């Protein structure tokens, strides 16, 4: 289940890092963004991949995970126990968070696929929709994206063309954690799986990929510590392939299940790199000037990467909470109250308006679907307003408010299966109340259909009947 031990090449890594992201600071060449007479806050957005709801220590659910740095981060801020993403798979979840809009509003219902609705459709986050990187650039921030992107294959869709001054990473669903010489080979056969710095293919390197992403993030902070920055670090851990460093596997040799052992080892390494990023902020006394957010892109996939979603029902690619409810924490030293546990439903759409307003931007005319949750985080408000959250995956759908959740796990022309849960009291979605509360089913279904009617139909998918036109997918013509 693992590759042979890889020796790290510290000198090569240092030189490569210096060449990649250690750019001269821009502080002397442009105005420093200010808020109320003070330097605007940095924002560090840390994103895990396929991490289960129970896969961090601060969730107090799994005994085998070791995530001391994430636990410290959560203790220093707020744990959002009812934190959601907009989709149970990678691409649309990221598209929603990066745009601040439900991705269904622009037809992005699923990961990129072999079939499209109409000829000529290009799959990805539409170029006319600003990303969170664009928004930060517009108010004078320096921006970077380090890790996995996965929101459009053509180069014009890549991060360095979508609002990020620096891009270091790959643009596919998965990549090998031991890059080595395969980076050159992949560039010819699978360019979206290769590691790039902006347009340039990165030379082969010996670092474990999660370590390399962590090092690049630390280097970026070092180079831009004197100016407000937005740093987005979407790790590909703990998404497959399950590959971990030998020393990390050895640490967890007591875990009997070999797949779970690898998963926990990969998670531990990611946590270590989160710690390195936080330590670099501390070194330069930037904690009071930095909002730090951590969450996962969707729920875990127990049979795939041995992640845990306990106590939630379902997994990645389902719309029970196991597919869309994720570990989620936010910290800002001196601003966000430490040691909080907030049970109000929040969603990844809230990140963009929350951090951009904190940075001094006027978001009032941006057509966003999230809300600013900073007043709740800082104690200025006691509770978020009740609202509806929506999910539409063409063949399955869901909607929830503070109390109730309606799930349609199977939508067919002949019959739509309906499940209703008192989600505020039934976190495991174990008691279907649809027959007992038809009035709630009717209320939620009406609201869902009104929202759905405003969205654009799915532009691509995997069903030939629903999406009749073939396209090029993963380098292959269908």
Task: Give a short synopsis of this structure.
The chain has 478 residues and is α/β, with parallel strands linked by helices.
Q: Could you explain the architecture of this structure?
A:
This protein is 27% helix and 17% strand. It is an alpha/beta fold and 478 residues long. It folds into 2 domains: 20-377, Alkaline Phosphatase, subunit A, CATH 3.40.720; 395-457, 2-Layer Sandwich (Arylsulfatase, C-terminal domain). It has a 10-stranded mixed sheet with strand order 10-9-8-7-11-3-12-13-4-14, with helices on both faces. Strands 16-17-18-19 form a 4-stranded antiparallel sheet, with helices on one face. The longest helix is centred in the middle third of the chain and has 26 residues, at 258-283. The relative contact order is 0.19. Keywords: Calcium, Hydrolase, Metal-binding, Signal.
What labels would you give this structure?
Alkaline Phosphatase, subunit A, 478 residues, Arylsulfatase, C-terminal domain, calcium, single chain, metal-binding, four-stranded antiparallel sheet, ten-stranded mixed sheet, Sulfatase_CS, 13 helices, 2 domains, signal, alpha/beta
């Amino acid at each position: 289940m693992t590759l042979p031990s890889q020796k790290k090449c510290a000198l090569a890594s240092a030189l490569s890092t210096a060449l990649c992201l250690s750019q001269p600071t821009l502080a002397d060449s442009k105005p420093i963004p200010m808020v109320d007479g003070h330097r605007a806050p940095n924002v560090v957005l840390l994103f895990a991949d396929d991490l289960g709801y129970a896969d961090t220590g601060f969730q107090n659910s799994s005994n085998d995970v070791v995530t001391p740095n994430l636990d410290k981060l959560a203790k220093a801020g707020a744990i959002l126990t009812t934190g959601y993403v907009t989709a149970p798979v990678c691409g649309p979840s990221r598209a929603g968070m990066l745009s601040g809009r439900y991705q269904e509003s622009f037809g992005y219902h699923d990961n990129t696929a072999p079939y499209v609705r109409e000829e000529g459709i290009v799959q990805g986050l539409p170029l006319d929709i600003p990303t969170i990187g664009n928004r930060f650039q517009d108010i004078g921030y320096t921006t970077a994206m380090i890790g996995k992107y996965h929101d459009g294959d053509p180069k014009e869709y890549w991060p360095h063309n979508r609002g990020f001054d620096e891009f270091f990473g790959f643009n596919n669903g998965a990549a090998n954690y031991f890059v080595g010489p395969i980076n050159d080979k992949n560039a010819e056969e699978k360019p979206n799986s290769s590691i790039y710095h902006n347009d340039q293919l990165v030379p082969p390197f010996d670092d474990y990929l999660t370590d390399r992403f962590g090092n690049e993030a630390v280097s970026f902070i070092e180079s831009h510590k004197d100016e407000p920055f937005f740093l987005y670090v979407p790790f590909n851990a703990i998404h497959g392939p399950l590959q971990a460093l030998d020393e990390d596997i050895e640490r967890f040799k007591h875990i009997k299940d070999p797949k779970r052992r690898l998963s926990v080892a990969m998670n531990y390494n990611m946590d270590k790199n989160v710690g390195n990023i936080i330590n670099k902020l501390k070194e330069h006394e930037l904690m009071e000037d930095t909002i730090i957010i951590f969450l996962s892109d969707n729920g875990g996939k127990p049979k795939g990467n041995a992640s845990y979603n306990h106590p939630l029902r379902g997994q990645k690619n389902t719309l029970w909470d196991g597919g869309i409810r994720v570990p989620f924490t936010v910290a800002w030293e001196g601003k966000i109250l430490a040691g909080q546990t907030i049970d109000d439903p929040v969603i990844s759409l809230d990140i963009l308006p929350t951090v951009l307003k904190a940075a001094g931007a006027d978001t009032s005319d941006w057509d966003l679907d999230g809300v600013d949750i900073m007043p709740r985080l800082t104690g200025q408000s006691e509770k978020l307003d009740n609202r509806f959250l929506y999910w539409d995956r063409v063949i399955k759908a869901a909607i929830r408010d503070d109390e109730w959740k309606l799930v349609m796990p199977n939508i067919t022309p002949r019959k739509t299966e309906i499940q209703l849960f008192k989600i505020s009291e039934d976190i495991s979605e174990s008691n279907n109340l649809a027959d007992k509360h038809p009035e709630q089913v009717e209320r939620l279904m009406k609201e869902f259909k009104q929202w759905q009617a405003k969205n654009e139909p799915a532009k691509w998918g995997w069903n030939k009947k629903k999406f009749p036109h073939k396209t090029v997918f993963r380098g292959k013509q269908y």
